[in-house]
Structures are given as structure tokens and as C-alpha cells.
Amino acid sequence: MKRKILIIYAGGTIGMQASANGYVPVAGFEQQLRAQLSGPGDAQLPAFEVLELEQLIDSSNLQPHHWTVLGGIIRAHWSQYDGFILLHGTDTMAYTASMLSFMLQGMDKPVIVTGSQIPLAQLRNDARDNLLTSMMFVAAYDIPEVCICFNGRLLRGNRASKLKSSALDAFDSPNYAWLGEAGIHIELHAERLLRHGRSDFNVPDFNPDALVVLPIYPGISAGIVRDLLSRPVVKGVVLHTYGAGNPPDANGELMAELENAVRRGVIIVNVTQCLQGQVSQGAYATGATLNRIGVIPGSDLTLEAAFTKLHFLLATQSADRVKELMLQSLCGEMAE
């Protein structure tokens, strides 16, 4: 029996059309999609339905409330379909895939996020292949994860990042092996997948002001950090540091501001600016300073996964529980 898929069109390049001001989202994607997929081979495709958001999202304009909308759609339709494909813009795709993985913990069917670098409406495009490959993974395999499928690569969603702005192989997962790949044959590495769990879906509302990202750079001012972290609404910080998680600890005023924030109850998670490797607070004396003041080491979390995990936990857990869970892998997002 054929599996039945829900394709959710949220926006992004895949469904855009050219305008005088560049590519813009347009409605009516389902008709275009079905026209592209009609032909002698369409009998091999799974049955699918298309749900198009009333307000399409250019992914550069993505806001935390959009995650609540998208997670709510998937949760509401969960029992009606065998899998889901979310068509999304590439700029913030890794953020959305990461957040959905935290919202949909314990899932027992695939949710694959994909899109394209060239619109489906263009004669030469990567949209059709990305979508067809995603459909084939959903139709043929048991994948209890949120994934990104792009340029023949199936990646764990909360391990993926967009690494290239204009190449077709835009996404990769530098700290975790691909879950699958599509060449002449489609191959799934089942041993790398999460195990089926018991559904524990939680689709909260988010306060967009509750979390900030603080990149460390040469000459960063303690005053800027003070202004950023002193607002009472700020509950969490993703600290983006050098190498193995090293801050400029010789800047005593900066370190004091971080320590003051932790004392006020702000939860600070430290992730590295490096593409590969993980935070090891204490490998160098500079990083050991963060251990002393109570900053949480973020292991090998991507920036996107650290940001969405902390956002999710702040919206759903007590402060003490947030600190505990940030050190644990909830759905394969980090090494333990």
C-alpha cells in the first residue's frame, strides 16, 4: 500500500518566481508542483496532498512564532499521514529543522525539510530533484527523525547547517555522518538513525526577546555585552566563542558581565565558532574561566541547534531543568 504524504509549502526559493525586485514568494504552488511531477514515472510516487500557508514565508523573515505555526500543523495532521515534507527557504532551514526536532520528540515517522537554490519555475533547477528525493525517502523508509534532504544528502536536521550561499550542495552536517544519500541508488544508513520513541510533542509559544546570540570577536566591548544582557526579558544566551570554547578572559570587565548575568539567572550556553569539533571548557585556562562562572558547555551543538534547543527549553521548562537538559542529547543533536 502506498504511503500518503503531506507536503507543506511554507515558502522559500523553491516556489518563488522572478519579479522586478528579484525572486518573491507566490501562491498557487500545488498546481505548479503537480504539473512538474506528471508523466510516465508518476505512478512510482507516493500519494501526496499539499497544504500551502496563507502567508508564505521568505525564510530571511522567519520569526519564532512561525515555528509554533509549523509545528502545530504537523501535530494536527500527524495521524492522517505516513510522513511529511516541509518546503522551506534555505536561509533559516537549519533553524526550523532543529526546532521541529525538539518539538516532535519521540516521532515514529519522517519529517523531511527541503527546498532549493533555484525555483521550480525555472527550466534548470535543483528543486525537482530535492523534492523527488525527499518523497522517495519518505515513501520507502522508516525514518523517525526530522531531516534535511538537499542535493542527494539526507542529514539529521539538528546537526545540519547551511555552509554555502549559492552552491547546490548548500547543506552539510560537519559533526555527524549523513543519514542517507541518493546517487544511482538511494541508500539509507539505518544504524545512524534515532530509535522509534513514544510521541512527546510539545509546540509552545515563544518569546523572541528571551534569547540572544553573543558572538565573541577581538575587541568586543564589555559595555555592549552589558547593554545586551541587562534587559530583564533576556533569559538565555548562546555564547559563540573561539576554538574549543575560549573567551577573551583577559578582558576582566567582559567576564564580569557574563558572571553577573549568570548570577541573575540568565542561562549561558557556550558553542564554538569552528565548523567541526566541540567545546571543551577547561582544555585551556581561558575556557576554564567559563566553568568557574557557571557557563554551560555546548558540546558540538551547531549554532542553530543550540539556539533552538535553548529557546525550546526556556519556553517549556523551569530554569534548573533547562540547565540539566542542555547537557543532555534529547534527539541526537549533540555528542554525549
Going across the biggest sheet, name each strand in turn.
4-1-5-7-8-9-12-13
Q: Helix and strand string, N-terminal first?
A: EEEHEHEHEEHEEEEEEEEHEHEHEHH
Whole-number average pLDDT?
A: 94
> What is the CATH class designation of the largest domain?
Alpha Beta
What is CATH's topology name of the largest domain? Rossmann fold
Alpha plus pi helix count: 9
Count of the domains = 2
What Rg do the Cα atoms give?
Answer: 21 Å
Task: Give the structure's gist in a few sentences.
This protein has 336 residues and is an alpha/beta fold. 29% of the residues lie in helices and 20% in strands.
Describe this structure as you would to a colleague.
With 336 residues, this protein is of the alpha/beta class. The protein folds into 2 domains: 198 residues, Rossmann fold, CATH 3.40.50.1170; 116 residues, Rossmann fold, CATH 3.40.50. Helix content is 29%, strand content 20%. It is built from 9 helices and 18 strands. The strands form 5 sheets. An 8-stranded mixed β-sheet has the order 4-1-5-7-8-9-12-13, with helices on both faces. The protein has a 4-stranded parallel β-sheet with strand order 15-16-17-18, with helices on both faces. Helix 6 links the parallel strand 16 and strand 17. Helix 3 packs parallel to helix 8, helix 5 packs parallel to helix 6 and helix 8 packs antiparallel against helix 9.
Blueprint (SSEs and pairs):
Layout: E1 4-9, E2 16-17, E3 24-25, H1 29-37, E4 47-52, H2 64-77, E5 83-87, H3 93-103, E6 104-105, E7 111-114, H4 127-140, E8 146-150, E9 153-156, E10 161-162, E11 171-172, E12 180-182, E13 186-188, E14 200-201, E15 211-215, H5 222-229, E16 236-241, H6 252-263, E17 267-272, H7 285-293, E18 296-297, H8 303-316, H9 319-326
Parallel strand pairs: 1-4, 1-5, 5-7, 7-8, 15-16, 16-17, 17-18
Antiparallel strand pairs: 2-3, 6-14, 8-9, 9-12, 10-11, 12-13
